[in-house]
Amino acid sequence: MIRPDELTATALAVSKADGCIVALTDTSEVNLRWANSTMTTNGHTTTRSFAVISVVGDSVGVVSGNGVDLEEVRAVVAASEDAARQSGPSRDAAALLDGAVDDDFDALAAATEIGVFARLTDQLAAAFRGGSRVAGSAGGKELLYGFAEHRLETTWLASSTGLRRRWVQPTGTVELNGKVAGDLARSAWAGSYTADFTDLDFTALAAEVHRRLSWSGRRAELPAGRYETILPPSAVADLMLYMAESMDGRPAHEGRSPFAAPGDRPGGTRLGERLTDLPLTLCSDPAAPGLQTTPFLATTASGDSVSVFDNGMPMHRVDWLRDGTVSALAYPRAAAEELGGQFTPPPENLVLAGGSAASTDDLVARTERGLLLTCLWYIREVDPVSLLLTGLTRDGVYLIEDGQVVAQVNNFRFNESPIDMLRRVTEVGATERTLCREWKDWFSRTAMPPIRVPDFNMSSVSPAS
């Protein structure tokens, strides 16, 4: 394929629009898959995508391509200009940024390779050889299933106003599912995020899955109802991500968001409102250790929280909640000017902090009777105004009695709003890097604490195994 700097230079040179932005991403990815405690497949792929954003007056057109050759690049530029001329004025129109120039802008794409998994495969092989038996079942050999991937996404952003930015974003995830041989009905899941796999302790991950499987040796059937519930960091991440994704400024001002002001204050927002008496801070930060993200905005689509006109804007730390109070909503530049806010980029990582030093095990040990809810699944929004969510439990709901996990229980459907849940949380533990289950393919960089909810709403029993 043509060099990235040649692609961007050609696109900008042939552009006849009033303004032009070129966004290019080359992705190098490797993956491993295993099943029945046996390695099954591995692969290495490279892909490219690019988009030309053409501005004609206050109108914009965006057309994408694969960037294989210069003829295609010229065609995409022309198509984006046609799209801009045929579209109406953009509500999010703003002046394109005069930009910084990165010293490595002309460098080629970063590439990963299968060797990044060397330490993981050693630990995985040891887990396979262990062939652990799980207590409480006949013929109860533990079988491991899972998937690991590592991606390096190199992004170039260039504009007719001189912007030249480049960033390499690493993303690594591993998911491990353990099952007990036989009918495979006993199952447990755990996952982890890592930038480069050098800090991933797969042995500890496998030990946690084994421990959860051992809890499933006894089975208890419980009815629907509200239960004191401990949610470990992974489950908390799925719920907090739904809340963070709803913190857009325009929908709040227009009354179609959970962060809109009450009906007696039309057009207002809940900025400054306290959601919880606990001193919790929910933030996104491109420099968060171990969770670093792109330090500039790079987007090929506009929406309530982001605008193609803002490409190249510096990303900065945002405290969405500060000491339990709503302190920020997301605004593109045009919306901020219109609505009286300030430019606030949407999150690319998410950290919830402000709890104690307690671990999930510590919260369990302080529970007289309740549930340990390890995984949420198939989460869907029921009511966007209250952010009421529904979903299922999966791969491990456990009964706690007198500070000990004593049995696995049936699955449930739950109904909860993460905003209302924060108001009711009574204990928050130590923040740690985690991987959510539901959102992992779209948003993998999170750090969350375990939490205690005194009355988590298990709305019905689920027949799912």
Offer a quick outline of the entry.
With 465 residues, the chain is α+β, with helices and mostly antiparallel strands. The protein has helices at 4-14, 70-86, 118-130, 202-215, 233-245, 249-253, 333-339, 360-365, 418-424, and strands at 19-35, 38-56, 59-65, 142-159, 164-180, 187-194, 219-220, 225-231, 281-284, 318-322, 325-326, 350-353, 369-373, 376-383, 388-393, 397-401, 404-409, 412-416, 427-428, 432-434, 446-448, 451-461. The protein has 2 domains: 4-215, PmbA/TldD fold (2-Layer Sandwich); 218-465, no CATH class.
Supply the number of helical segments: 9
Distance between the termini: 48 Å
Number of DSSP-assigned strands: 22
Would you tell me the structural class of the helices and strands?
Answer: alpha+beta
State the low-pLDDT regions, or none. Answer: none
Largest sheet: 10 strands, mixed
Strand % is 35-45%
Mean pLDDT: 95
Helicity level: 10-25%
Number of domains: 2
Radius of gyration: 24 Å
Question: Which of globular, elongated, flat, extended, rod-shaped describes the shape?
Answer: globular
